[in-house]
């Protein structure tokens, strides 16, 4: 599993999650080193949107998010099609599948994932994010 975050002005590095992602690991490996600095770089209007996965909603994570003063979007469960990151994962998958032959090992796959993640045009990401309003209306 990999984790990544996108915004109109930045994207986080892609992070390879080894094993099960718990709330504590999500906080220590993703929120603290990747999410909070990215949100701080955006400024006080930054909003975190996650997908309500159990690690994202653990008590430890909720406490950390409050203490870090992170603005979190209220998000209905079971609505992944509305989350722009889901469309980013689809694009990443399409791009990686264009490599021939398939990756020889996990290391090569991770290398291609990071390369393609970095190669997705900023305009594509901005379009995903700006289309959220219309998808919510629909």
From TrEMBL:
InterPro entries: RNaseH_sf (IPR036397), Tc1-like_DDE_dom (IPR038717). GO terms for molecular function: nucleic acid binding. Residues 28-100 form the Tc1-like transposase DDE domain. It holds the Pfam family DDE_3. Transmembrane segments: none annotated. This is Tc1-like transposase DDE domain-containing protein. It comes from the Eukaryota.
